[in-house]
């Protein structure tokens, strides 16, 4: 076991403790503080802009009003957020898994890729609104499933596209190496293509995270839900129809907040998975 | 799962109910009151029906849901019914709850607009759907032009921000919101009073349902109409259900909606006063068809009579009140 | 030593890359089982190309390459000219790879891997990632990876070029010992003439563009080769011959004058 | 000049002629034939499915009916396609340029990236429907501009995200090299970061191409007015309102066809730009 | 030759990487202007690290590195251990890069570039992409890139390791000639002891982990160095000394026995 250790040349750090202190510290790090500072600045400018231009709140409410509304209506908005979140997550996970599988299928043979990639594009460029009735009819009256399918369609393509690109970008020498050692298709996939495609896949996830969310919102527009089990889209629409624009902005704020949270999580995941080797995440010392 | 078209069932002797889904055209509101009332007060149940109301929404395509079997009855619209015939879609209107279409145009007060003629050449916010309904009528009858159109997304902001524009609206909805949120009373022009005369908030179903299961249709129509009488009388039970389906709905909006329905005789006017709610006549269908054909929306030779059947309505007020 | 059973036979091999470069022209060569063959030749003459083609990487433009009955590309190990390590895996996992691909369970493979790592002096860096290694250490990891399998044929493309003389010398000895123990067939590309002569049964000198064999020199000296051989006149003679052939090969194609001060004295 | 030639070791090919023959040949190559074959197969299955299940055309029309409708209504659909194309292209080019610039800005400093990336996410996750009124008011009566802005918002994020990833994934040794030769920020960008990010950028473009199109369609749904200068979305909506489902499908077919064409063009562009060096496009010979 | 004006001064330099590896420990070293200094040492001892730090790449953990008044990091050229070519650019454009970065117009730079390409024998591959080159050709392109600027300081990290002896010898001669013409300060990492002694004023022997200087051997022989020097007893003496120091340095740290058959005989 001695061979796995580098202790004598490693500067001693109390590892487990250090790690946790670091993690907590992260919340006070520039990564978090910088966007917050900019956020405050933006809010300030927004507030001043609204005040100075005298734009009426039914067009663009000031941030304070929006936040007040958010706090006041938290009781109805938050459950709606949870439902949207549920749809988003389900669709996102489905898109991640299926996108990865499809990309893997595509890279099994140039023929499959050439033959089916255009159909992935068709899926991407078909307006949900046009096919929503078909989906609803097809799924009978399982509205949740219909919503998830719509959001999934929206989120799928970037994952397929980026992952396929990644799976096709493997280092030539390494692919030779695997060929040499007679790696099976499956082994090449598992030990070479997938790790090499990881940065691209994660990049695709970061794009799709937001799309799954926006897909969930759009899906609710086109598949029509309401009532107790309705998500943020319903809140946005109703607030808009009822000219409760501050409330609409509060709901929008929640949507985008959720989007940013998803993005931040995916970025953290990406950094974690790539920190040991990929240039985009490694901290280089020279 | 209880698709009523499959079996020719009549009110079952053993008391089991026929499951039926009714699709509306929007989030629950006063304009849907009678249907909710019929659910709430058990009128449907008394007619052997277990009715689920499925709300529509801004981009929900109800006809497809109806024809695909996702709903059994659908809240339709006169011009829609005629277009279905043109496209050989076998759906049929079996009752018309609204004698008048609540479609209005709204303008700012004190800008000198009081009639449709005054709006000629002015920018108007209209929804995309208007292009297939009242807009061709306005073009044909009042000389409106396409470059007057501005997109309307059911958000009042753009209208309020610009005194120069007018916009479309729903009688019971936008005018009240404007009054409430912006504090002024807009000019409201009801298109039904200007010669635009489609039935609206109708009950549509597939032709095959009418053919195979007329009894079910009759029961649904009867119960719905009874629901409407009941709602006009005491809306409370229906309103409860509406608020349950659409939590954003408030009592004052519901009250206003009902008041407008009554004030303008949307539900109870014309033949409905004698034949009962839901009444339809051949003449009315024909005159509306003529208007649309004149506007170029429908071909002159369309067999518009297929769009509806009078079989289930016009029973007289007493029939429903008994 | 050699039983004169052909292990790899190249017949009129020609390789032209798509951009038009003719890397090999009409190259014929038979490598016997258990031979230790060194390839020397000017930079860019096609040594790596030959090795890759032998390993079944890439297609021939014409000609053929055949493997002897007792040999197969399956029991092949290859040290690439650049280390070709997977950046996302630790040194340990990189070296483990061929065994993993062969289906060996990790626990069974680990001792072999550790042994190989020890051989190349990377014990302490098993858990390091390639980016944390120096150039020579990467190359050593790559060598260790080639040695963990039990190859019957070992193709090595300048494996020791990036190593200091002492490490190199040690690894030379190790490879030679393993070779004589295990009866490997070795094809070895090197730029070090002395290394080539010291290690091999046979040194093949190539000339450039188009790449071809210009000399095939048998090194008739017994194994194990001792310090004595290294200081012998025979050794010097062989080195000089390889050197001369190489100079000739280069003078033919290259117009730039080759420095003539090249010392004839051997060294590893 | 002799040094630039490799004639004596190059196998002689009549270059200019050969190139053209090859290009024409490409149309008969598997790249084109394979998806066409699959396309025909899909159409066949679709047709059979519709026939056998007896699903009525107002729910799902068969392909022959759709094609007939497409031919019949070509006169109105094609001009609409051109307008949608115009919006799509304008928005796409705007997104490509601005996305690239924003990504460049982001990689100028970790601080900028950290501070502003969340706001790019906000742009991505704001439903167009909700902010369309603001855009319309803001752009007064310029409908075309409003549509382009909406489509641009939809198409922007993948380019920013992928390009940023690419700009951050430059080879460590090369970045050292540039540092060593005291390359200015601008030079590093031009000669190192941009070329290195090219595969990622092009991957982003391929995702955004479809999104710009779908963005143009959605934009027209929410901000379009119809009339003479209306695009495919209007045709889809009207066909849907008029219950002309075959016509709706014909319009959808045009949309997706346009999407596939954009994708194919971007893929060809990508292959052309990367063919000399990037693993995803290079034809390796060993 | 050397005017004894310090070009680069390292004082108590320590470099520990984030993973805890101490690459350099308390390293002090002064390189004079116009000196030709070779660094030799076992694989992984920190030679590349030192070179990078001299070039201003990476941060010191402690200590300092200072450049002489007449020198500056601006007039620096560096040959990296791996070729570090831009894969998207042709060989020509790769070699042109430093001049482009220095703001020279292409037309003015081209003759210089062609000359450098000719020097390394890549004339015919100016329009090739790096992936179309052999390992040695890549390295030569990298050397050409370092030579196109008019550096006053040249840092080279095993530039000739991947080259055949004849090309290597030619380039040795070329570099030596350029050096004496242009009064460069050269720091040269090599694994070839004979090359080190033949080329340098001074050979510095390093030991590994933590990397440090264990010997600093002045090679007192006049330039230009001739064939005579190469066969002289003095040359042999120097080689042996470097060799011994190196062996010592390795034996201290590494427990694996170093082969003692290392021939003392010089060669390039
Ligand atoms: N992928 C490729 N495409 C085009 N030409 C190539 C390719 N690979 C190698 N070549 C060319 O083929 C010739 C032989 O290359 P090879 O790598 O076999 O040389 P080598 O003998 O290994 O040289 P070195 O000692 O420098 O490694 C060279 O001229 C090179 O430019
Ligand atoms: N980025 C890095 N992170 C961590 N450790 C590193 C890193 N780079 C180098 N090292 C370690 O620093 C030590 C010195 O490395 P360096 O590259 O300087 O060696 P070297 O003398 O150039 O060796 P070689 O002759 O093999 O090229 C090695 O032990 C290596 O593992
Ligand atoms: Mg080679
Ligand atoms: Mg090194």
Automatic annotation (TrEMBL), chains C, E:
Membrane topology qualifier: Peripheral membrane protein
Localization terms from the record: Cell inner membrane
Domain ABC transporter: 8-233
Annotated TM spans: none
Sorted UniProt keywords: ATP-binding, Nucleotide-binding, Transport
Pfam families: ABC_tran
GO molecular function terms attached to this record: ATP binding; ATP hydrolysis activity
Protein name: Nitrate/sulfonate/bicarbonate ABC transporter ATP-binding protein
Organism of derivation: Desertifilum tharense IPPAS B-1220
Domain of life: Bacteria
SMART domains according to UniProt: AAA
Homology family: Belongs to the ABC transporter superfamily. Nitrate/nitrite/cyanate uptake transporter (NitT) (TC 3.A.1.16) family.
